[in-house]
Design a protein that fits this description.
The chain is an alpha/beta fold. It contains 13 helices and 14 strands. The strands form four sheets. A seven-stranded parallel β-sheet has the order 3-2-1-4-5-7-11, with helices on both faces. Strands 8-10-12 form a three-stranded mixed β-sheet. Strands 6-14 form a two-stranded parallel sheet. Helix 1 crosses helix 8 and helix 5 packs parallel to helix 6. The protein is globular, with a radius of gyration of 20 Å.
Length: 337
C-alpha cells in the first residue's frame, strides 16, 4: 500500500493516477472538507478512463495535528509520497503556512518512524535555493541562506526539508524533489492552479522570470525515483525559465485579452512604503521585500542532475501551457455544478 498526502492537490492527484496505472494500491489522504469529485473530474485530462482509475483509490481523512489520525492512515503502508502543503505568499497566512508545512511534516515523519514505511518522497520547492554555483546557476548544492529575505512559504519548505534530512540521517530511505512553478489541470483556484485565472484577471505583469514544469513531469520523476530506489538525495525538477510577461501574454492572447503592461522595478519597489497602510488595506502586506525580489528576479535554475540521472526529457513549457490552458478553457465553459 502507498500513501499519497495532498492527493486532492494539483500534483498529488497526478502522482496517485501514475501509481494506479502501475498497478499499485493507493491510499489518498485528504482533508474532511476536500472535494474529491473535482479530482474525479480532472482525471479526464490525464486518462481515457477517469472513473475506472478514480474508483480504485482508497480515500482517507487525515489530520496532521492528530497523531492517531496519521497512524491510521499509515496502517499497512510501505511507501509515502508527501505532497501536502499550504502554498501562500501572503504574510497574513504565515502562521498557517509554518504550521502546515513544518509541523505537519514533522508529525508525519514521527508517525512513519516505527511503521512499515520503507520509502518516502518529499515534495519541496525551488524556493529554498540560495547561493548560486560558479556558473551563476542554482543547483542541488545551493544552500539555503538564512540572511536572505524569504517568503514564509520558502522558509517553511526549508525547515520541512530539514525534518526529512534528519529522518534520513536516522535511517529513513527518502528522496526530495524541488519543482519549479507547476503547470497542471484542475484545482483552478488554489496553489499554482490559479495561474490561468490570475493571468487572465490582471492586465499587468512583473519584470522577472521563474522556472516552470509540467505536473506530468513532476509526477513521473517522483514515481521513477521511488521505483528505482534513487534515494538519499534531492533533485531539482524544472523544464524552462520564462518571464512573467511571456507567460501572461500567452494566456491572455488565447483568452482574447489585451497584452500586459510590465510594472517597472523602480515603481514596484517604491510601492513598498504602502505597507504602512496595511492596517487599513491588508493586501498591502504583500508588498514586502521577499515577494518583490521574487517577481523581479531572473534566477537561473539547473535541472541537469535529474536529466542525466534518469535520461529524462521535459515537456517544453509552450506545450505544457497550451495543453493545460485548453483544459482550463474547457472547464470554464462547463463548470462543476
Amino acid at each position: 500500500m502507498i500513501l499519497v498526502t495532498g492527493a486532492t492537490g494539483i500534483l498529488g492527484r497526478v502522482i496517485t493516477l501514475e501509481l494506479l496505472k502501475l498497478g499499485k494500491n493507493v491510499r489518498a489522504a485528504k482533508r474532511i472538507s476536500s472535494n474529491v469529485d473535482e479530482v474525479r473530474r480532472s482525471f479526464r485530462f490525464y486518462t481515457e478512463n477517469p472513473d475506472t482509475w478514480f474508483d480504485r483509490i482508497e480515500w482517507v481523512d487525515m489530520d496532521f495535528e492528530d497523531q492517531e489520525s496519521i497512524s491510521r492512515a499509515l496502517e499497512g503502508v510501505e511507501e509515502v509520497y508527501h505532497c501536502a502543503a499550504k502554498v501562500s505568499f501572503d504574510p497574513r497566512e504565515s502562521r498557517e503556512v509554518y504550521h502546515t508545512n513544518i509541523d505537519g511534516t514533522r508529525n508525519l515523519l514521527y508517525a512513519v518512524d516505527g511503521s512499515l514505511v520503507k520509502k518516502f518522497l518529499f515534495v519541496s520547492s525551488v524556493a529554498v535555493l540560495d547561493l548560486p554555483n560558479d556558473k551563476g546557476e542554482f543547483d542541488e548544492n545551493s544552500e539555503y541562506n538564512p540572511k536572505t529575505d524569504h517568503s514564509a512559504y520558502a522558509v517553511s519548505k526549508h525547515f520541512a526539508e530539514m525534518e526529512v534530512w534528519r529522518a534520513m540521517a536516522e535511517g529513513l530511505n527518502a528522496a526530495i524533489v524541488n519543482p519549479g512553478m507547476i503547470i497542471g489541470s484542475g484545482n483552478w483556484e488554489q496553489s499554482s492552479g490559479n495561474m490561468f485565472s490570475t493571468f487572465a484577471k490582471y492586465p499587468f505583469a512583473f519584470s522577472g522570470a521563474t522556472s516552470y514544469v509540467d505536473v506530468r513531469d513532476v509526477a513521473a520523476i517522483s514515481v521513477q525515483l521511488m521505483e528505482k530506489n534513487i534515494l538519499g538525495e534531492r533533485f531539482i525538477v524544472v523544464s524552462e525559465s520564462k518571464t512573467f510577461e511571456e507567460m501572461s501574454n500567452a494566456v491572455r492572447t488565447r483568452l482574447q485579452r489585451s497584452k500586459v503592461k510590465v510594472i517597472p522595478d523602480a515603481v514596484l519597489k517604491s510601492l513598498r512604503f504602502l505597507k504602512i497602510f496595511s492596517f487599513l488595506f491588508p493586501q498591502f502586506k504583500m508588498l514586502n521585500r521577499a515577494n518583490i525580489e521574487a517577481v523581479t528576479g531572473h534566477s537561473r535554475i539547473s535541472g541537469e542532475k535529474i536529466r542525466k540521472r534518469l535520461g529524462y526529457r521535459f515537456l517544453p513549457v509552450s506545450e505544457s501551457l497550451d495543453y493545460h490552458l485548453n483544459n482550463y478553457i474547457q472547464d470554464q465553459k462547463h463548470p462543476i455544478l
